[in-house]
Amino acid sequence: MSAAPELAQLARQIPAQPGSLTIGTLARELRLLASHPERWWGRAAYHPDRSEKMDLEFTAAGITAWMMVLAPGDPGRYCDCDVMMLVAGDAIEESVADGGAVSTTLRAGRARVHGQGQVHQIRANSKGFAITLHVRGSA
Q: What is the pLDDT at residue 129?
């Protein structure tokens, strides 16, 4: 016997919380942004000696979005996003966890979730540029 129909009915009865930005909502908006590169690809600025952060206009209320173009050989940029995604190139993320510093190789197309207020550093991990998209709930 399945409880799915009853759960679906209960879910319809729970009103949506206006203005609530969950990690799931932010991840969905990040994927939506990544799926429309015409909105941000032309803004990429490639500087061979430094990484760049470019703010992006975003239409969803309470959300701040930006793109980073990570230059090869640059020590990287600190970031305080809630969710990020590597969209081009190779990059690595360095963060501080309970057990100490942790380095993670990023995979293109995968949303990476960070704890609220967790600062991390990202940098290019090859001889080429890398591009990442970032989203933070500002509400």
A: 96
